[in-house]
Fold each of these.
Amino acid sequence: MTVKVIGAGLAGCEAAWQLANAGISVELYEMKPKKFSPAHKYKGFAELVCSNSLKADRIASAAGMLKEEMRRLGSVIMECAEKTKVSAGGALAVDREKFSDLVTEKIRSHENITVIEDEVTNIPDGNVIIATGPLTSDTLAEDIKNITGDYLYFHDAAAPIVTYESLDKDKVFFASRYGKGEADYINCPMEKDEYLAFYNALINAESAPLKEHDKEHFSKDNFKVYEGCMPIEVLAKRGEDTMRFGPLKPVGLTDPKTGRRPYAVVQLRAENSHGTLYNLVGFQTNLKFGEQKRVFSMIPGLENAEFMRYGVMHRNTFINSPKLLTEHFNCRKRENLFFAGQITGVEGYIESAASGIMAGLNMARMLQGKDMVSLPETTMLGALSKYVSDTTVEQFQPMGCNMGILPSLPERIKDKKEKYQVLAERGLSDLDECIKNF
């Protein structure tokens, strides 16, 4: 009894881990290092492309709640993230390479997992979990398309990375918003005139052209981007103050040099555990590399910044899951074919990994003759599972974890923090009861 898992990203690794720990033999297929997607560069498994942050870590937040659920479900990604984390205030961020290396080591060393370094071009027969991500290779994508019909598309982007030593330390300061956690962020404060000059340069900067294979799906008037990974230049074009209410918001920060809140603030977050590299938070971009250097060097403290990686944009692909999948992440028309990760329309690192847990857990239970698991809708993962399988959804779009997808509380709580805490406690309690019945 063997399961073929296609793709060793976050979702594929979680699925393989669940299956292997259930005593089921796994063949994990990964095309790297023989072949890389347009966005992937590192040879290891579970490569983080857009950001090194796994979002907020406090339980009374959607991301924190989901991560705690994953821990209770035996997540290998959460275990490795804890061991390779870097300082990031109230968020869980990791050293990308150390994180990938640790996940790779744990997966390769499991006695029930055989790693096959090869590209899969057709959906295999038998028990299969497809976790190839939003950048599925063209040949396999065509075969998937034969089952699912037309794909849905959107674009997302990655932010640039700069060296710490190249920053002007006289112009920046370390602090976390509202003083949460340690002073883990480098803050680049802007006065109004500096912000306006930066804003005007940004909205008039030249973007990189679309790849040839994307042009048939996108035009100037039909260009979809996912809100969570929106290019900073696209966000800026929505209005002069839009960035100041988004990634450049100054609230909760005081410039020690002036003793007051800046007009706008660009934040940098540690990219590795040594603190030698920092990424520009919220600065996903599709500007030409030369334009990134010119415009982002206008940010106070980044005038002489050394860019170790420029931002890039790539197309993401996902299937129309409400028409195709059950809440267990298997196909309605082929029970032993599961999908996991961003290809299902869950959006984000931890959401993708969590869906892999569900796919692996339920494939294992199906093969063991047990009922598949439906998590309570009061849990974040249960709510996400139901969202991607909801047949009433007509215009399906990627969904990340958020408190809005959870059922309402019986009592009305005005204070948002208190409300989120109660929602999280309810969901985790319900999850514990569900786990008792596994």
Amino acid sequence: MHKSGNGRGAWWMWAAPVVVTMGCEQDYKLQAELREIEASPSLLDFGHVATDTSHTLPVTLTSLSGGDVQVIAADLLDTADSYFSVEPGLPTIPQDGDATLTIHYSPEEPGWHTARLTILTDEDDNNAHVVDLRGHASASSVQIWPTTLDFGPVNAGEAVAREVFILNDGDIDTSLDAGTTNAPLFTVNTSLPLSILIDETGSIRVAFTAATTDLITDDLRLSFATGDIGWVSLRANDCASGDPTLYDTDGDGWSACAGDCDDSEALIHSGATERCDGIDQDCDDVIDEGTECYDDDGDGLTENRGDCNDGDATISPSAPEVLDNGVDDDCDGVIDLGTEDLDGDGYLSDAGDCDDSDPTSYLGAPELVDGIDNNCDGRIDDTTIVYDDDGDGWSEVMGDCDDGDRFVSPSASESPNWVDDDCDGPVDEGTPYGDDDGDGYSEYGGDCDDSNPTVRPGAIEVVANFVDDDCDGTVE
């Protein structure tokens, strides 16, 4: 005889009466001990969780009286998916003790999910004990920026802190549970866990303490309660490839590692205009070249010392006058012993002066942006910023960043050649040489997915996401 359904998920079990015949013609009946088993809870609720995460909860089986009971089956019914599962292994419930069934919930799609767990024992397999299972899954998503956190130039012993921002744009609240790095010089200075509600943005402060002024890089791994993993590349003292705005201290567009020989003075950098002041403005290790203070032609005299043509070593105040060449060779203002130089530029028409009424025009004069053929070569404004010197249809003032190369212009296509072909600032973007996702690695450098900043050499491989996170050719 049996009885079940006592409202507590319990079973009462009796064995049939046993008749025992003893001496003196006396019969005795022995009743088997009452057995009662309870399963709890009757509703196992996993609550609100994120999709693509795994969760476990126990069902406790308790022997309230009687001997040991063996669980012979634990089956899932009334489920349209396989998101619930029972951990293998059927326990024995000891007399007056407990045993556990471990239930897993691993939802792959958002929504409500339910199932019914039925449990049978070796005592009475006609009466199944029932536990209802329930869970609700929502899509999780976080956006993290910047993907590369550059601390800029940091002196030894100096500490700098910067912020990383996290947007929760998923359908479930989350929390940042951990932020870890490999290098102890980088630390997270925000107390964790950090709760981030739906559509809210949180932030953490990451600190760097420099031991030296050498380049250092690392990765910050961000772990969320919803199972999301984020990565931020960390770097400091990375002048060569770091954020130019951090390393350009004088704001002239050039950092010390990119050719600025004095990053405290905005008028000094590679390509700057040289001035007559005893300072190397263009950082080429030559002082005052191209100015009136410099002896450009090497004849021992500069323009401010009377050289009337510092581009020609045969012309200077110490040179002899050559007759009938149309040139003021000795810079005395008189050409060929009396021939008139109408504009006073030192050249006559028969010596190549194409406009003897304009002192800025003569053979070899510097070309100016003035709509005039100053150097008398038949071209107007050539070699200036308004002239298309390489014939690609673009001048420097129109945006040509290299007017000596016809394959470089704003309309050119970017090629993997370490050159900014399209003059937009980034180099080799969209090619195997360019770091398109900002994770510090290009395809040429081993990035197997340069559109995803979490995929790169050295990243942590995420199990069962079907992605080669660390670009080693294998998927875990």
